[in-house]
Amino acid sequence: MNLLRRIKRKEIKAGIIGVGYVGLPLAVEFARGGYRVTGIDVDAPKVGKINRGESYIPDVTSRELRQLVNAGCLHATDRFDALSELDTINICVPTPLRKTKDPDLSFIVAAVEQVRNNLRTGQLVILESTTYPGTTEEIVLPLLQESGLQVGKDFWLAFSPERLDPGNREYTTRNIPKVVGGITPACAEMAAALYKGCIESVVSVSSTRVAEMVKLLENTFRSVNIGLVNEMALLCHRLNIDVWEVIEAARTKPFGFMAFYPGPGLGGHCLPVDPIYLSWKARMNGFEARFIELAGMTNSMMPRFVVEKVGDALNAGGKSIRGSRIHALGVAYKKNTGDVRESPALDVLSLLHEKGANLSYSDRYVRRVSVGPLALKAIEPGPQVLRRSDCVVLLTDHDYFRKKDVFQYARLILDTRNAFQGFNGPKVIKL
Asked: How confident is the model at residue 271 (pLDDT cuts 50, 70, 90)?
């Protein structure tokens, strides 16, 4: 296996299709590990930024990117004919849902068709995009074999789920274990060797289907448990019990319990989407995934519950949502990142707008957002802004807000992120 030897000697050219939140950090790790890397993307502005050493991803600094680009270790292009010059190809494209809540594999298919058109003997292809079990075997493999080349003989094919947690400074692409499954044992060996060159731990599994299922299990586990604790929050509200106090007491048990916390809903590119992929695949095989679907229903109710709590808090002060000045702290789906994909904060703001609220927001990572017909621009969360607001809603607990000590200035805060333990400032309403 000439390619295997060349991978181990760092003599290969590695390519990554899709240089977004997953692809760019992976490209950087490959380049840091000693591979020569080409990022391929249809987004010309992204390509230009990479080649100028300008990062648009929080997990990659411009300084680090610029060093790799200037050293000739990493560059980007929007030309897919560059695929024929590469030895390994990682596919890191989006896998959204259609309006019908069915999987949308159009980005995967488009990328694989480009690979097929440029496929040559001796290449390794790895799909990283989150998808349902069977995609690599049922969709990717047949398309690639249309080239006339045979898997395990002429080229190698594997699946390795992305596990990136945007904004997490402790666990990064380098130290998060990489799960790998191949169409054949040789495919798995080849893919594992590639990742071992730059990632600390690689976990090989028996097939691409197992590797695909691993990612869905991980995120379905989180979705179901978040759905459970969100339902607990709704129940505790009815029973006049502080759900946060309940959770803090429960987490003192040293075994058999893992703390999850309620919030305004699910966001990001994985949690709201991945369980639906699994549920869809289950239905296609005559199985009803009830836990998954119930958790999804509960989590989707949370933005309306947040708005209800805002209404109750304002009403207690003799005001209504209509005409009130409501300021949101954070619109990203999680702290310390600018990712607004599927962010429940946008759903909350949209519902408040429908009820006639005057909206504003602060988020140092997200400069502009659209809320229905509104185009909002982020403003600094200074004392004047917060004091004139009738209600401040904490939707994303960025560390920046704590550094600025913004919480002391508001008159009324609705806390959806458990930021105020031991806080003695303005009146705080929790979910």
From this structure: low
The answer to whether 21 touches 269, Cβ cutoff 8 Å, is yes
Residues 6+ apart with CB under 8 A from 223: 266, 271, 272, 274, 275, 292, 295, 296, 299
Chain-centre distance for alpha carbon 283: 25
Active site residue 270: yes
Query: Which 3 state secondary structure label does DSSP give 393?
Result: strand
Specify the pLDDT at position 72. 96
**SS3 label, residue 217:** helix
Q: What is the dihedral of CA 270, 328, 167, 231, to 10 degrees?
A: -40
> Quick check: 257 pLDDT over 90?
yes
Q: What is the pLDDT of residues 138-168, one digit of tens each?
A: 999 999 999 999 999 999 999 999 998 887 8
CA angle 148, 151, 152 (to 5 degrees): 140
Rounded (to 5) percent helix, strand, coil in the chain? 40, 15, 40
Alpha-carbon gap, residue 230 to 224, rounded angstroms: 10
Share of the chain above pLDDT 90, in %: 80
Count the neighbouring beta carbons within 10 Å of the beta carbon of residue 241.
13
Of the residues 92, 198, 270, 391, which is catalytic? Answer: 270
3-state secondary structure 280-319: HHHHHCCCCCHHHHHHHHHHHHHHHHHHHHHHHHHHHCCC
Identify the pLDDT of residue 117: 97
DSSP per-residue codes, 10-43: T--EEEEE--STTHHHHHHHHHHTT-EEEEE-S-
Per-residue pLDDT averaged across 102-118, rounded? Answer: 95
